[in-house]
Amino acid sequence: MIGAAVASLALLERDLRAVARSRSQLYSSVLFPLMLMALLGAGVSSGLAPNSPRIIDGDYTSFLAPGMIAMTALFSSTFSSAGFYRDRESGLLRAMLASPYSARTILFGKALSAILIGSSQAFAVLALAVVIPGIDLAWQFGWLGGAATVVITVLALSFMLSGLSLLLALRVKTMQGFHLVFNLVLFPLFFLSGAFFPLDQVPGWLEVIGYINPLTYAVDLLHYACYAPSPDGLIGPRIDGLVLGGLALIVFALGLSRAPRAV
To answer: Taken in order 54, 56, 61, 64, is the CA torsion positive or negative?
Structure first.
C-alpha cells in the first residue's frame, strides 16, 4: 500500500513539473476565462441588456464568473490527461506497466495530476474574480462557507472529468482523436450547463437537455456558493451535491478500473 502511494505521488510530481515548465499553458488557462469575462461580459451587459432575474441588475460579467471557474477546471483537467498519450508514444507507459505496481496505481497517479492542475487553475480564476473591480459576488452564506463550497465543487468536478478523460484515453488511440471527441462532447454540454445563459430562458427542449447534463449541477452549485444573493431559481445544493458527488465517484472509479494499453 505504501509503495503504491509513493509510486502514484512520483507520477504526480513528474506531471506537475512538466506543467510548471510549460508557462504558456499556465498563463493561457487562467487568462482565457478572464478574457471571456471581460469581453463577452461587458459586451452582453452593455449591448444586449439581459433581463433574466437570474442575472442580477443586468451584470452579465458577474454572472459569468462561476461558469468560467467551471470552464477552467473542465478544460485544464481534461487537457492535462493528454500526458497519457505522450507517455504511450514515448514508450514510457510500457515501462510503467512493466513495473511491480498495478495499472490502477499508475492511472491514479496520472489522474491526480490532472485533478490538481485543473483545480488549482480554477481556484486562481476565483481568486482573481474576487479582486477584480466590477465583478460582484454575493457570497450569500458568507465568503468562508461559499469558498469551501466552491473548493468541494471544483474538486468533485475535476474527479468526474478526470475519470471521463481516462475512459476516453484508454479507448481513443491518438491525442488528436481524444481532443476531437472531447471537444465534440464537452462544448455542447458546457454551453447547456447554465454557464453562459440561465436555463429558464431557453426553449423547453433545451432546458430538458440542460437538466440531464451533469455539468449543470456543478455550475448551479457554483452560482449558489458565490454569485446568487438568494437560492431562488436554483436547483439547490442538496440535489447538486448528490448528482455531482455521485457521478464523480462512479466515473472516476470506472476510469481507474480499465486496464491501459501500452500501444
So the answer is: negative
Residue 263 lies in a domain: no
Contact 162, 115 (CB under 8 A): yes
Asked if the structure places residue 40 within a domain, the reply is: yes
Q: Is residue 60 exposed (0-12), middle (13-18) or buried (19+ Cβ within 10 Å)? A: buried
Q: What is the mean pLDDT of residues 115-142?
A: 85
For residue 64, the surrounding DSSP H or E stretch is helix 60-80
If you average pLDDT over every residue of the chain, what do you get?
78
93 part of a folded domain: yes
More confident residue, 33 or 263: 33
How many domains are contained in the chain?
1
| Residue 107: other Cβ atoms inside 10 A | 25
Given a contact cutoff of 8 angstroms between Cβ atoms, the answer to whether 78 and 181 are in contact is: no
114: in domain: yes
State how far the Cα of 263 lies from the Cα of 261, in Å rounded to an integer: 5
- Which domain covers residue 85, as residue numbers? 2-257
Q: Is 166 exposed, middle or buried (0-12, 13-18, 19+ CB in 10 A)?
A: buried
The pTM of the full predicted model, rounded to 2 decimals, is 0.83
